[in-house]
Amino acid sequence: LSNMAFILRSLKQYANAADRFRQALAIRRAVLGNDHVDTLDVIANLAICHLQLSNPASALPLIVEARDGLR
Q: In degrees to the nearest 10, what's the CA dihedral of 30, 34, 36, 37?
């Protein structure tokens, strides 16, 4: 799902990409946990999609979560 999301994002289909990143995030959280680097990577990429969709209010908590998880 993450690979598909990257492709959609490169095609500037940000809303569709965000949907795929959300799906990937749910799976990664369930399988790997919240603090795994792969989970945090998807969180950061979902945040980027929100920024590309001009939705910084949705991006900010994701950015903070990804940053805090990498500490």
A: 120
Helix ranges (DSSP H) in 1-71: 2-10, 14-32, 37-52, 56-69
- Report yes or no: 44 and 21 within 8 Å, Cβ to Cβ: no
pLDDT tens, position by position, 27-67: 999 999 999 999 999 999 999 999 999 999 999 999 999 99
Average pLDDT for 13-28:
98
- Between CA 71 and CA 24 the distance in angstroms is 22
Q: Which residue has the tokens 């990429």?
A: 45
